Amino acid sequence: MRYRLFGRTGLRVSELLLGTMTLREKESARRVLDVYADAGGNFLDTASAYGESEEVLGAVMRRRDRFVVATKYSLSRDADDPNAGGNHRKNLVLSLERSLRRLRTDYVDVLWVHLWDRHTPAEETMRALDDVVRAGKVLYVGVSDAPAWFVARANTLAEWRGWTPFAGLQVPYSLLQRDVERELLPMARALGMSVAAWGPLAAGKLSG
């Protein structure tokens, strides 16, 4: 397994990131994780919205400090609560606390903003992210599925105000979906952000 630097952080992550959205059964999850780790993989990706994924990962993960554990927040935790979703501080704090309990850890290496929230200003999100980094509950931050202008604005604000910038960008990227090459990839290169592709097999269309 080869490793890459995660943005401008100095953190080394394996080229292949293990997505855990479909992990449901502990024994099969343990086998998958063992095979991945034996091959040199160290980057695990989950989310608060991935059902039981965080709990299963927390139950089977051995040698916690060997892994770079990433989770996401943004999507709603409770359909009846209008503040249970979004990128504002309240949802960030509550989602992160729940994720830490499920993962059985006191910190996550990377917290991703799961998607762009047009109702929450970049200042609110970046300040709240910086606060959880300073509290030691998160080491690095990233963003998924957001327009280039928003990511550039957010990182510019972080630079001006001394906050933690986005170090990574998650995007849907495959032979069938290459629109990210127009703006998002050039932006990430210019800002020194790592790019993690999700859906590289286009939901099975490219795997036969």
TrEMBL record:
Domain of life: Bacteria
InterPro entries listed in its UniProt record: AKR (IPR020471), AKR_Detox_Biosynth (IPR050523), NAD(P)_OxRdtase_dom_sf (IPR036812), NADP_OxRdtase_dom (IPR023210)
Keyword presence, Oxidoreductase: yes
Domain NADP-dependent oxidoreductase intervals: 16-207
Gene Ontology terms: cellular component: cytosol
A single MF term (Gene Ontology): oxidoreductase activity
UniProt KW keywords: Oxidoreductase
Protein name: Aldo/keto reductase
Record organism: Lentzea aerocolonigenes
